[in-house]
Design goal:
Elements: H1 3-24, H2 26-44, H3 52-75
Amino acid sequence: MSLRQLSSRIELSFWHIVIGLLSESHSLQQLIRWFYLDFLPATTNIYQQFDSQRVIRWAAIGLGLGFVVGFLISLF
């Protein structure tokens, strides 16, 4: 199996799982909605004041997501 086939299989598997979870999990839908509504005001007004709490929160989310993805990759 080539690297291109492997990456395509991983991507298709990822989207299959994510679409299934988003279709059936009400709590995941609410979590995605909360993230979206938290991020939306920052995109609508570019010149808003710097919000350090929001920056720290998003940095923590990115760090946690990076650890989870790294852990999942190490399992495969």
